[in-house]
Amino acid sequence: MSEALRISRVDITPVAFKDPALLNAVGVHEPYALRAVIEVTTDQGIAGLGETYADEGHLRRLRSAADALTGMDVHALGAMRRRIAELTGDDRGGDGHGLTGMITTSSTVDRVFSPFEVACLDIQGRAAGRPVSDLLGGAVRDEVPFSAYLFYKWAAHPGHEPDEWGPALDPYGIVAQARRMVERFGFGAIKLKGGVMPPEQEVEAVLELRRAFPGIPLRLDPNAAWTVETSLKVARRLEGVLEYLEDPTPGQEGMARVAREAPMPLATNMCVVAFDELPSAVRDDAVGVVLSDHHYWGGLHRSKLLAGICATFGMGLSMHSNSHLGISLAAMTHLAAATENLTYACDTHWPWKDPAEDVIVPGVLGFRAGAVAVPRSPGLGVELDRDALARLHEQYLRCGLRNRDDTGYMRRLDPSYEKKSPRW
Ligand code: GKR
Ligand code: MG
Q: Does the record bear Nucleotide-binding in its keywords (predicted)?
């Protein structure tokens, strides 16, 4: 029997990278997005990478998990998750911004476990000389299509220099943004983050996108900003235009009411975000498409479990994203490549990131015709750039942000702003 690969050390480094003033249903992105980089090293000196959120409570949980996992074999993934569950007890954690649904105890365990699982798979792959997609059953596609992810946005954060994308505050601004993004990355699907402007204006934006990009699949995601009635009005106006409507209204019950009459499938990353939320969603036909996200579904293997459940119950599968760096893009790409029923182009916030800011050595992950080629080298296929990690960590220390708080930032700029779901 071959030797165990035991975890001898775990490094957790919070980093911050610049983020434009992107608007959403709960406020506006702050000038920096926060992530944590996890580096797991074995006693043979093989290192693996993971990436996750960096809110303070999450960092605290990651640090106690790191201590508890030290000494374990990188193949003992089930035992690792169990150990994290024991540590977590009935701590529910929180996501601080309310855009990824209800946090339950089991989803807190999955959020904490995920970056360690990814790092251990990276190590397993490096040790075996195989890409992570092979460890997940093998790639069924050589490249993974992603969608353009459009946002209403300001030209700049107040007091900062304008970013290269310019403002997008009406349908024409959105179409202009789409043109630049599609031109630069070649995306073959488009998602608009809604819940920002009155629904009529967002409908107009989608209709303008349809005129500008005939034949490209379109999606609209207002993050539960609408009542059931508003959702149905929008759904009827956009019949034949949207491939899916994402989280129009809060809660599974509301979603089920919209789903009964809407002419297109409803998708979610808000009302089904953990395994214990699946039975009622299936029973009530609340959603047609689940957006997976390995960062909170408990890593890559458990995301494949989700994929199997979706296939069994006839639900479609897409992929959700938050602002992220290259380690996550690599993990998302391996997972999507090895998941047969992930048939929609995946979300990514990648275009919003300054290409000069990442923690991985550049050159492996690139977009061609809207898709990322699946790395074929061992593990995730990406290497840590230690100087860049140090720079982005320094930026984290300097920027002063410690938790994502889109609403708090908006309220500092506009004290009359209120967070409401539904708003319209
Ligand atoms: O980045 O503002 C954002 C998004 O709204 C994000 O936080 C959501 O979680 O992308 C997400 C979504 O699809 O709902
Ligand atoms: Mg969404």
A: no
